[in-house]
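the two lines:
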Amino acid sequence: MTPDSVAQAVAAAVTAAAQANGYELDEVPVIRVERPRQREHGDYATNVAMTLTKKVGVPPRDLAAAIAEQLRTTDGIASVDVAGPGFINITVEAASQAELARTIVEAGDAYGRGTSLSGVKINVEFISANPTGPLHLGHTRWAAVGDAIARVFDAAGAEAAREFYINDRGVQMDRFGESIANAAAGRPAPEDGYHGGYVTDLAAQIMREHPEYADLSGPERIAAFREAGYAIQLQQQKDVLDLFRTHFDVWASERALHESGAVERGLERLREQGHVYESDGAVWLRTTTFGDDKDRVLIKADGEGTYFLSDTAYYIDKRSRGFDVCLYLLGADHHGYVGRLKAVAACAGDDPERNIEVPIGQMVKMMKGGEEVRLSKRAGNIITLEDLVDEVGVDAARYSLIRYPVDSPLVLDLDLLVKRSNDNPVYYVQYAHARIASVLRNAAESGIDWAAGPFEPELLTHEMESRLLGVLAEYPRVLAAAAELREPHRVARYLEELATAYHKFYDSCRVLPRGDEAVEPITIARLWLCAATRQVLANGLGILGVTAPDRM
RNA sequence: GCCCCGUUAGCUCAGUCGGAUAGAGCGACCGCCUCCUAAGCGGUAGGCCGUGGGUUCGAUUCCCGCACGGGGCACCA
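prediction for all of em together
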């Protein structure tokens, strides 16, 4: 039995108990079964009796007893007990629990996938760095988490698109161009310009490819270096993200928004909705109507559109492309944008509670040798995404960035991330996968064809087998919760729990025959359990974008 | 001043609609490989869940205040 089928059985028992005892119960509440912390409390527990006691007017323990009596007759349930203030503790029959191994192996990659977000089109925008430099530590968290969120959405049945917004317009681009142009001429960057060793590298590369730029001057020269630098830098960002296994579906350019008329269309939409006004020679959006601290300028007195104008157009453009939900993953340094973004959705006539979500991620720091890392060998004064990958590898970097809830600040300990022991969770989980792969490999080499069966689930009665099965059964619920709450770290934590359950099982339950021992039915049954566990570990690691190695 | 986030074991952190004796890893101490991967497993020690109130059968969890720490409040991008 799975958590869902147990919950259904409880619901049926509640209805039956109400009928048998004449309880007045217009509707059965949604039943949630949980896995008790204490092993003695059974495989599953529910507190329905306590939640219904008021409505029904019967003491919780009596109500629990009545429900338990009905529940006992359910197929697949071994025993039911009432405990504490009115908890119902349920123990499932070994065979019905172990059938799950077959279910998982047969479902393969699909095990755990759900339909809770079926038919929903979600746009996940993240990183959206300026194309004026390499991606740095501040971008890394979202590079991993944003991608994982999109994968979690896919697993929940949604249609998720990963989108990167390129701020390729405005004065910072000119400052970027001027900085490179100056570097090419051996001059320092202008005030408010871009420094860093990468600027000098860009200048050198551009001079190699376009020696003729040396003869240009004035705005023409700045524009030439700006455009060349933009192209190189954007490509470099794409290459690094590719290496990091974060692949975007859409690279949206701010310039393109202006060139395609999306900005005019967005402005028109906002005017239609009646939230645009003029004051002091500028054009404003009345975002305060929807809870923003102050109204925002769309077009400055000098006639230039603001960055905010592009933002509004971009949001409206996304919606016009059919996305039901637009997710903006922003760093804590941008949290001030939440109010105005929500207001933009409202000003556009949308529901800010449903159509737009703006999770805020806290900052990331790196420690090495007990001290905060501040300098990058490559880029002068910043730590790049590439540095991190060079240092610890893609798997460790992705895993550790996803492993924590994004609303708490993150400190990455580089010394820990390269360690190969169980204080490094990524290896701990991967090791479990490799260990199983090894067992399955050894079985195959010994000519044991477990898949040909027969699989006798009722043999999996060992304490550790039962616990492992219980953890395997949780996976679909974990994935669904991760999608609903936009919290992929739950998947990582779950995998650690699963790895622990497997390692304990492995330690106390011999799988393959030793020496000249015969292949027993329990051997086959345990191999099914191993195969199921390997599958779930692989599926979960896939959600995180981390590899599941067969050997380590 | 206003807004967002955090505060749980010595350290790094889990703990979604309020539930039974608050968890994991590390660090410390003690154990387990002639046997499927010891990158593993078992045990001991370690807690006023920041603080003061409130809500109720029950609060680490929900509400309000306070303290401490981080971040933010542009006709910049």
